[in-house]
């Protein structure tokens, strides 16, 4: 069965979505990711969606859910590389993903996670 | 029968018809006569007469949809467009055709000295035809004006949504004019594309030039902020005038999730602070 690979980088998990995201795939990702957060004792999750150019409300909600689940497991989620058209679509769908932190690319996202990891209390979004 | 007869009359009196008609048009313009030269007017009139005679000789009738009139229609369309850009009013443009009536009718009368029935018939043909042509001119005038308006709207949309980089990684978006949904779309797209192109993580949206902020405009602003946030860029809204601050609160718009500053200068300062940069006097 098709799966989205989850890579471990230090105490963070890196998920790069390279294929068309259909609903079953999203559900599998949700299962795998929560399992990995627990087994790897990850403190942060970075989801790269730069090659995703179509989203629907289900995928939008799933991203929100993953972030919320990760938070419960004490891991920070950063979504990076969103395409302008995807951002506009999500906003028009009314899904502005309030619980999720975002960054322009993987580099910036990593910085964000590291900053959040070092001083948990001042998890500001300043970077660069 | 009337058609070719009319063409004959026009052909015989062409020179004085043209002179009288041109003079009449110049008189009708009054003070605005410097917008068009007499030479141009004469040229237009001459072209009109030529096209008219040609169509009449081919027995075209007064139905402008017929193919014989196509060159006349092209000519009138051209003249109307010219007049519209020169700033003539619709009636001034229509006068071009209608002022031809009197000179023509005088000539027709002199051609039928003792035949009142023939005169009436000829007059009716001429009136009907000239009315049609005059109406067509007005129509073309309006059409060309509409084209101008449409083009200007398009240009305004493109002109009024610039995105400028005020610091490395800090974009500024000075909004000018009313924000409707069509413009919000363009603003949002421009901003997001600039965020990607410049790798920016801060955007200042300056609304000094937005005359009024109602709930709809506020919603559009919040949408833009949310979209920028999804791309990993924070937004600061600046240029909020006291009047607008009052309106926003009275309308119950919730801007608490967005950073707001009174002036663009304050916003830039905040942006620099967020980037851990300080500006010092040397």
What is the number of E strands of chain B? 5
Q: How does the overall form of chain B come out from the CA principal axes? A: rod-shaped
Number of helical segments with 4 or more residues of chain A: 4
Helix/strand structural class of chain B: alpha/beta
In helices, the fraction of residues of chain B equals 55-70%
Mean pLDDT of chain B: 86
> What does the main sheet of chain A amount to?
5 strands, mixed
How are the strands of the biggest sheet of chain A laid out side by side?
A: 1-2-3-4-5
Along the chain, the helix and strand elements of chain A come as: EEHEHEHEH
Question: How many separate domains of chain A?
Answer: 1
Low-confidence stretches of chain A: 120-128
**N-C termini distance of chain B:** 94 Å
Which strand order do you get reading across the main beta sheet of chain B? 1-2-3-4-5
Kindly state the mean pLDDT of chain A as a whole number?
Answer: 86
Overall number of domains of chain B: 2
Provide the CATH architecture of the largest domain in chain B.
Orthogonal Bundle
Identify the quaternary structure here. heterodimer
Q: How many distinct helices of chain B? A: 11
Q: Which two protein chains have the largest interface (Cβ within 8 Å of the partner's Cβ), and how many residues from each?
A: A-B, 22 and 24 residues
What is the chain-wise order of helices and strands of chain B? HHHHHHHEEHEHEHEH
The CATH topology annotation of chain A reads as: Transcription Regulator spoIIAA
């Amino acid at each position: 069965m098709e799966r989205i690979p989850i890579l471990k980088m230090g105490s963070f998990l890196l998920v790069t979505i390279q294929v068309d995201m259909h609903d079953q795939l999203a559900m599998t990702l949700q299962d795998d990711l929560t399992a990995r957060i627990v087994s790897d004792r990850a403190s942060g999750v970075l989801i790269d969606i730069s090659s995703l150019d179509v989203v629907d409300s289900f995928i939008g909600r799933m991203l929100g859910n993953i972030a919320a689940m990760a938070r419960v497991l004490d891991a920070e989620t950063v979504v990076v590389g969103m395409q302008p058209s995807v951002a506009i679509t999500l906003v028009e769908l009314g899904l502005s993903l309030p619980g999720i932190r975002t960054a322009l690319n993987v580099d910036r996202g990593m910085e964000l996670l590291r900053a959040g990891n070092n001083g948990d209390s001042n998890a500001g979004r300043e970077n660069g | 029968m009337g058609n070719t007869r009319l063409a004959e009359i026009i052909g015989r009196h062409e020179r004085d018809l043209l002179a009288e008609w041109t003079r009449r048009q110049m008189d009708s313009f009054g003070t605005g006569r410097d917008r068009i030269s007499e030479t141009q007017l004469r040229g237009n009139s001459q072209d009109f007469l030529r096209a008219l005679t040609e169509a009449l000789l081919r027995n075209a009738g007064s139905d402008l949809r017929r193919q014989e009139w196509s060159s006349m229609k092209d000519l009138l369309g051209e003249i109307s467009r010219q007049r519209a850009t020169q700033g003539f009013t619709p009636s001034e443009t229509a006068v071009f055709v209608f002022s031809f009536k009197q000179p023509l009718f005088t000539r027709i009368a002199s051609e039928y000295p003792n035949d009142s029935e023939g005169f009436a018939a000829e007059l009716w043909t001429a009136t009907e035809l000239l009315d049609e042509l005059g109406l067509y001119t007005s129509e073309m005038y309006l059409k060309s004006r509409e084209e101008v308006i449409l083009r200007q709207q398009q240009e305004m949309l493109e002109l009024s949504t610039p995105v400028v980089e005020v610091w490395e990684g800090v974009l500024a978006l000075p909004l000018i004019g009313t924000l409707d949904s069509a413009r919000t779309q363009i603003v949002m797209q421009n901003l997001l594309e600039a965020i990607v192109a410049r790798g920016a993580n801060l955007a200042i949206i300056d609304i000094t030039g937005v005359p009024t902020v109602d709930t709809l405009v506020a919603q559009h602003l919040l949408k833009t902020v949310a979209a920028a946030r999804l791309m990993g860029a924070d937004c600061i809204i600046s240029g909020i005038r006291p009047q607008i601050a009052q309106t926003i609160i009275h309308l119950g718009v919730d801007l608490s999730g967005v950073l707001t500053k009174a002036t663009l200068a304050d916003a830039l300062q905040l942006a620099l602070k967020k980037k851990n940069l300080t500006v010092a006097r040397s």
